[in-house]
Structures are given as structure tokens and as C-alpha cells.
Amino acid sequence: MKVLYCILDNRMGGPHRLAETVAPRLREHGVETVFLFGQKTPDVWWPEGFDAFWCKHIQCLTRHHPVLNFARFCCLLPYHLVRIRRLIRSQGVTIVHVDGLLNFVPALAARWAGVPIVWHYNDHLPGPVKRVLVPLMTRLAARVIVQGEGLRQSRTAGNGKLRSKTCVLYSAVDTDKLVPEAYDAAERARVRAELGVPAGGVLIGAVGNLNRCKGYTYFLQAAARVKGQVNSARFLIVGRKLETDVAYWKQLQQLTVELGLEEDVIFAGFRDDIPKVLAALDVFVLPSVLESCPVALLEAMAMKTPVVATDVGAVIEIVGDGRTGFVAPPGDAGAIAEAVLAILAMSREQVQNMVEEARKTVERKFAVDTIARQQKRIYEDLGGRAGLSDTGRDSPGSLGQPDTW
């Protein structure tokens, strides 16, 4: 069985880390993955050990030059459909897995090629856009995946056809690569010194690209409140500044100055050593206003870092409030600050009990082996309908060079 996994954004983020984590385990079970990415920027991320292709201008809606982009999208749509259909056939793809509601061009090509479609409905779009694209997804997809039971309830309410196609598949992390014991006190101190955190200071951090749904304005407002109580506190934001929304970056810089936090907030940009960063934190904060099943939160819990997360997406299904972390209302900087201060006031034993339970939760419910087996069963069900058998599966081929269309 060979799956074409389609992600609209070429910039590394949660969907990429999830796919990169699960694909090797699927390969062990006879499911080979080929990647297709959109290309919003010149950056090219290539998942090591897997074939990958890039396709420009397959996103119909953008924040930057929206009218020009839409016109270009419409002109190039027939060309993209032909090229992706050829890719499906030349690679022997048996299932197309689409990530995101806006990522409908590969789904149209898959329908034309007669290949079953699995559609990950994990994005958050304005009402008018959803009213157009949800019916399209419902019609085209053989199976729709959401990343939490609450999301399944809310997104399929009143739509029996969509509900019958929808299943829950949480995000996954590789706990074998998230080993908190691998980072001793000396390594933790070295990372904190590299970030400019003074010895004995408290480090509170968030991880995620700088887009508006991540709620960084509330993180900064909460940081100001925490700083008023804990003078040694420093605040870390790890994530790429998005060239497609420079205005948000400027807003965050201005807010940092207005709050008097210029010397206390560290914008670290993109880093590929997230486990090491998480090990250096005293508290991890997920301040998002919109999420599905955030990978960064699962990674923090696996690294035994105390967590505070807003009640969005599947967070309440991940974090046991007061037991494995704290959950705060989205958009409430005061509640986020109170939760952070509550963790900082806990005894060492209380914190240890909390993070141990958090690690066990991830190992039990969100470990990559568990999620990969569930994902494979989804594929096998659709593969069976398409008349596929074990003897007809594709074996991993040789790796070619990346192609950009």
C-alpha cells in the first residue's frame, strides 16, 4: 500500500512533525508514504528517507495579495490536476491522504484518478469558506479524520453523511526520541545560558510558528502578570516568523515593548532541537485560541515539562486539569498567568507527580506505535474497498531527488 500524504504548507510545523513521526512506523507495517507539499516560500523541507514533491500555487486563499493569488490559482488549476494525477499513477499511489480543508486540489486529482481519499479536517476556517468546502470534502472523502472526540461532535453536528465518514485519530509523538533523562542539569543550564536566561531564573516557554491562532498576544499579556509576581521569570517563544503575516510579527514586537518586557521575552525563531528546549523550561504554555490536537503539547508532556494549555480542540482530552497539567480558557491572559503561578508555587514532589502522570498519558494514548496502528487500519479498510491485497502492496522504492512543479 502506498499513500500520497499532501500538506499545503512547506514550512515546518505541527502537521509536518506528525507526518514525519508516523511515516517510518507505517513503513514498518507495509505502508509506504510519498509526500506532496504546497510551496508558499522558497524553503524546502524534505522528510528524510522519503520521496517528496512540491507544487506551487495550489492554495486558493492567501492573506498576501489575495486577488492576484486567486487569479493565478484558477489559471493553473487544470495544470496542477493533470500533474498530481500523473504523480498518483506514476508512484503507484493507492490512497491519497489530504491534510487540511483548504488542500482540495490533491483531493480533486485523486478523485479523477479513482483513488480513495482520507481527509484530515484539522484547520479552522471562516464560516463562508467552510460552507463551500465542507460539502466538497463530504462528497469526495472516503474517510474524514478529526483529532478529538469533541471536534467530531462539533464538526459533524447536523450532518449525518459527514458524521458517518468521520473518525477520531489523535496526533502522535515518538516517546523513544523524547527522553527527559537524556538532559541532565548541566545540559539544561547550558541551553538556558545560550538563551540568555540568568542562573536561578525561571523559564516559561511556548512552541509554534508565529501565526494568529497560536494566541501569542495572550502569552505576552500573561507573561507581564507573571513577571509582576516572579521577577526572575523569562519568557521564550520558539517558532518561525511567517513572511505571509509580517503584521502579526510587528504586533507582537510592539506589544512586548508596551508591556515593558523587552529584556524578558526571547523570540528564538525556528529550532530543530525542540526536546532540548522543552527540557530547559520550567513551564510550557500553549496559549492558542484555535487548535486541533497540538503536537507541541504532547511533546512537552512526554518530556515531563509542566504544562498550561488553553481549552481548545482536543486539549481537554489530553490534559487532566490539575492532574497532568492545567487548562485555562482561551483568550484569558489572567487565567493563563494564574495557572503558571500555580505550577511555580507547587512543591517539587507535586510537580514530579504531575509530570510523571503526563508522561504516562502520552505513552498510553498518543505514542506513535498506537497511532500508526490506528492509521494503518483506516488505510486498510479503504484499501480493501478498492480491491487491494497484501500481495499487491508497493515496497519502498529508491529515493529520488525532490521535484518542484
What this model shows, in words?
The structure is a single chain. The chain is an alpha/beta fold and 405 residues long. The protein has two domains: 2-172 and 367-404, Rossmann fold (3-Layer(aba) Sandwich), CATH 3.40.50; 180-365, 3-Layer(aba) Sandwich (Rossmann fold). It has helices at 14-28, 66-90, 104-113, 127-140, 149-156, 160-165, 185-194, 216-229, 246-258, 274-280, 295-302, 315-318, 333-344, 348-365, 368-385; strands at 2-7, 32-38, 52-55, 95-99, 117-120, 143-146, 166-168, 202-207, 233-238, 265-269, 283-286, 307-310, 326-328, 403-404. The strands form two sheets. The chain has an eight-stranded parallel sheet with strand order 7-6-5-4-1-2-3-14, with helices on both faces.
